[in-house]
Design brief:
Elements (H helix, E strand, L loop, with lengths): L1 E3 L8 E5 L1 H12 L4 E4 L3 E4 L6 E2 L4 E4 L3 E4 L9 E8 L2 E6 L2 E3 L17 E8 L7 E6 L2 E3 L6 E4 L6 E7 L2 E5 L8 H7 L6 H10 L9 E4 L2 E4 L12 E5 L13 E3 L10 E2 L17 E3 L2 H5 L16 E4 L1 E7 L2 E4 L4 E4 L2 E6 L2 E5 L5 E3 L3 E6 L2 E3 L7 E4 L3 E6 L2 E3 L5 E4 L2 E6 L2 E3 L27 E4 L10 E4 L2 E3 L9
Parallel strand pairs: 1-3, 2-4, 3-6, 4-7, 5-8, 6-9, 7-10, 8-11, 9-12, 10-13, 11-14, 12-15, 13-16, 14-23, 15-24, 16-25, 23-26, 24-27, 25-28, 26-29, 27-30, 28-31, 29-32, 30-33, 31-34, 32-35, 33-36, 34-37, 35-38, 36-39, 37-40
Antiparallel strand pairs: 17-18, 19-20, 19-22, 20-21
Length: 478
């Protein structure tokens, strides 16, 4: 059976909401397995908090169709445009999705940083089965979430997922990056007033003190963060000046409990108290520096998962090929998947991680890709016990924190080129990142290996024929 969206009289001018027509059209397709559904060329505004329902045994042709999210989302800031549960034999070809992802360098933003908008999402529930999902020739611009997201379940992976010949530019969940907000406040003198104001707006107020006062070497404030003082908590100072004897950007540890006694700080956990003798007017502090620096890469209120523009979880037989992607956060995520081929793609930039495969993936081939980090976070992350991995003939260039292999098993890393992936480690306050533990610029190796479990091991690993061109910010090549 063939169904055409035009039969449901949408006003395809980009300004009239077409949600009702799309809902009716796809609901009719669900009654007729094997339907070929055609969405004719036009501009379709989709302003619905409820996603358009996808169904099984469906082929969608959307060549020439443009799907627009609304500029004003109201209270419904977490949206999926198309969604299906327990799907099989779904093919989607063509179509262009448009959003308004947040940009911290832009003076005015229609959407805030915590907005999440997904396009083609397919999940599996606790009793369902999903298989045979194919997405091709789809494009997207500024979508604030996963354009394509497919998820199986713990004991029933989604079988056979293909994404090919797609172009998703500046898509994926928006992320600040590690230390981004904190650095603009602590080193405010190096940034514009708007950048500092922007950072303060999106930092959780409960982690900032009011102005500090000093009495008998102890620190007091009318508004001290609620969980302070707390032993082993780390704090940093900020203001026009920092206390004499301390270093701007370096964390210090709380020695004593009890705000009524004032704060005593130390350079190390349980170390000798700092002797503070002078405190400039306007000096304040951050608490919980691990959270402020590391965890606030995700905007407050944003969804926890589905980060990349292409995002698959618990899928088997996954192929991503011939795609062009860039991201306002992580460019792509492949998690807990088996039999993965990521080949002949171009990652054209990422605000955070440029290439990510992790969490117990098995049998992974990565070949023929060019990955430009453009000063993102890690150029490549192979995280948490991924095994049987072949990474051959790729170029990784211009990332922020090198390439990370976290407890891999059976890895071949051969004939790749790694070029200057230390953008976040350059001693330039505009592009580099200060480490909150030391107050100095960060430093990573170009390629590095770690474990994540206590007393764990990794290997065997073959590294052969790779070219590594490290810049001045690298602590080592490997």
């Amino acid at each position: 059976m063939e169904i055409r969206l035009s039969a449901y009289a949408p006003v395809a001018d980009g300004s009239a909401d077409c949600s009702a027509a799309l809902h009716a059209c796809f609901a009719e397709a669900a009654k007729h397995p094997g339907t070929v559904l055609t969405i004719e060329p036009g501009e379709y505004l989709v302003d619905s908090p409820d996603p358009i329902p996808l169904c099984s045994d469906l082929t969608v042709h959307a060549e020439g169709a443009v799907f627009r999210f609304p500029r004003v989302l109201g209270q419904h800031t977490q949206r999926r445009m198309f969604f299906g549960l327990n799907l099989h034999d779904v093919t989607w070809r063509g179509g262009h999705f448009v959003g308004y992802v947040f940009d911290p360098d832009r003076a005015e933003n229609p959407w805030g940083p915590a907005v999440y908008t997904g396009c083609l999402h397919m999940h599996t529930d606790t009793s369902g089965v999903s298989r045979n999902i194919r997405v091709s020739d789809v494009t997207a611009q500024d979508v604030a979430g996963a354009v394509v997201h497919v998820r199986g379940r713990e004991d029933q992976y989604c079988e056979n997922v293909d994404v090919y010949n797609c172009r998703f530019l500046n898509c994926g969940k928006f992320m600040w990056d590690y230390g981004f907000l904190w650095q603009r406040v602590v080193f405010a003198h190096a940034y514009t007033a708007r950048a500092v104001k922007n950072a303060l707006q999106y930092l959780p107020a409960e982690h900032l003190s009011s102005e500090l006062t000093l009495k008998d070497g102890r620190l007091y404030a009318e508004k001290m963060p609620a969980a302070l003082p707390q032993e082993r908590d780390a704090v940093t100072f900020f203001g026009e000046t920092v206390p004499v004897g301390t270093k701007r950007g370096k964390q210090y540890f709380v020695l004593n409990k009890g705000a009524e006694n004032g704060l005593l700080l130390s350079e190390t956990e349980g170390g000798d108290p700092l002797v503070l003798t002078e405190l400039a007017k306007g000096t304040r502090l951050f608490r919980n520096m691990f959270y402020i620096f590391h965890d606030l890469f995700a905007p407050v209120g944003s969804v926890a998962h589905q980060k990349g523009s292409i995002d698959t979880t618990k899928c088997r037989n996954v192929t991503v090929t011939g795609c062009h992607i860039s991201a306002s956060g992580d460019s792509m995520h492949i998690l807990e998947c088996e039999n993965v081929v990521f080949a002949n793609n171009q990652v054209l930039g990422a605000r955070m991680g440029a290439f990510y495969i992790g969490f117990f993936c098995k049998n992974v081939t990565v070949t023929g890709n060019t990955v430009y980090g453009t000063n993102g976070s890690r150029t490549m992350s192979i995280e948490r016990s991924t095994e049987d991995i072949t990474i051959v003939g790729n170029i990784f260039r211009g990332g922020g924190r090198g390439s990370w292999f976290n407890q891999p098993k059976n890895l071949v890393l051969s004939d790749n080129v790694f070029i200057r992936n230390m953008g976040k480690c350059t001693p330039d306050i505009q592009s580099g990142r200060i480490c909150q533990a030391t107050g100095d610029f960060e430093s990573y190796p170009e390629v590095y290996f770690t474990t994540w479990q206590p007393d764990a091991e990794y290997g065997p690993i073959v590294m052969r024929g790779n070219i590594i061109e490290a810049d001045a910010g690298a602590s080592a090549a490997v």
